[in-house]
Model the fold of this input.
Amino acid sequence: MREARWNPPAGAGRPVHIQIFHHPGHAWNPDRMVRGVRASLDYFTNELGPHPHGQMRLIEYPGTGVSLHGAPVNIWYKEEFSLFRPDEDPRRIDFPFAVTAHEVAHQWWGNQLEPASVEGGPLLTESLSWYSAFGVVEKTYGPEHLRRLLGMMREMYLSPRARAGVPLLRATDTFLAYRKGPFAMHALREYVGEARVNAALRSLLRKHSATTPPLPTSLDLYRELRAVTPDSLHYLLADLFEANTYWELATKRATAEPTASGTWRVTLDVHARKVVVDTAGTETEVPMNDLVQIGVFAPARDGAPGAPLYLRMHRIRPGPQRITVAVPRQPALAGIDPRHLLIDVTPDDNVGQVKRAVPGPGS
Ligand SMILES: [Zn+2]
Done:
């Protein structure tokens, strides 16, 4: 057993006695789990509210599988979860740390707030636990580590699947609960800001943390998110949660040329389309006048992706369109929605290599 203690900041609840019960041979992650519990308690007590108990235990149990379960105080994990070796992961992702944060988040999402057992319920438990864990990962390891974690989680989108489906507000299956839901919350955070989204979550907890009926549903979450989202972005909220929306975004061509003033002019030819898919798989193209990020990036360095030279929202309409921006240095990559905030089943064509523009005749 590994033991540690977490002390809350003044006025933020009680100290927590942390215990990790593990197989003696599975000794390489318990310290990492302790770090995950501590970082999670720091972040969640600050962002969501106090942790109600004086103990938190992670308990390994035998059997094949990597599943975990976050009951109040006791978090159970199957022994295969112990086999993750982040130090040997070429993707450089501390997955056990992130999963620990997800399980600690269930102390709020699922334990303090228990949803009604109806469609959309998993949005309030699994999706919010992942969304909250993203904040712990980013705060502890930085935005680049979070980007790698999101990239790994996005792989599930790329396995072939029908686009038919219910809107997130009616989510019941694991794909919506563990992937599409957290990504929708993350996208909203990038559009309206972490402070606003987390204020909405605190408000939800304040109103619904008693486990007496009426228990909250995804509509209660939606009401809180709408209250913190500017009117100008209500369309996005509806696309993310009320409909089964897909964006089809692609960069067909990206060129750059130096200007007389020493900057570089980047010209992007992009293509956009937005469709809503119903449960039978019928696709309906819908009007689009959406804010979508346009990004231009410096060359990669030391294995890390290049720094953004330009990253701003642009109004994007359906069909082909040309976008021209100025950047201070020669760029390497450019494209539309480079951080994959919007749900696009072919994310690889969002960003392309920037080619040096061929001077036209007379120039
Ligand atoms: Zn979970």
Observations:
- The chain has a mean pLDDT of 94.
- The CA atoms of residues 57 and 189 lie 30 Å apart.
